[in-house]
Amino acid sequence: MTGKIIAILLAVVTVVAALGLYYLQVYYFYERVSPRGFALQTEAGEIPAKATNIEAIDANSSPIRFRACFDTPLTPDVDAVPYEGAVPLNAPFWFDCFDAEEIGVALASAQAQAFLAEKNIEFGVDRVVAILPGGRGYVWHQLNNCGERAYDGTQIGEDCPPREDQ
User: Fold this and answer.
1) Dist. CA 124–CA 9, nearest whole Å
2) Transmembrane stretches, by residue range (predicted)?
């Protein structure tokens, strides 16, 4: 009889822990934010993205959790610094304006273009802006070469900026 009680108790604790972990990852750390707008880097400086209808989320728990959606009069052929290797990261399902799969398909088919918005917004993390035809824009943070090397344990090269935490 005590074995059944222990097994049931263990199962209940496991389910509660799993639900708690799910809640923390999908809801708790995220909050809606109101960014002031976005700028795209050009060879001569930067140009504002003229963003309207901005919806954005962020979390203090990780520098790559930022996501945003906006409308803009800019088109994918804007003269800005392209971002090579842009891969949109998934957003929580409840942030339904940001569909990473749809953005990724548009980037892969060259319907959309990704641009550098800000280099090293935090060490090893770039802000990327993608603009689709029709004036829909998306923003996310993505690990750059320095960030990938720092987080996988590879030696960081001299081409990387100094880390603030060292």
Assistant:
1) 44
2) 6-30
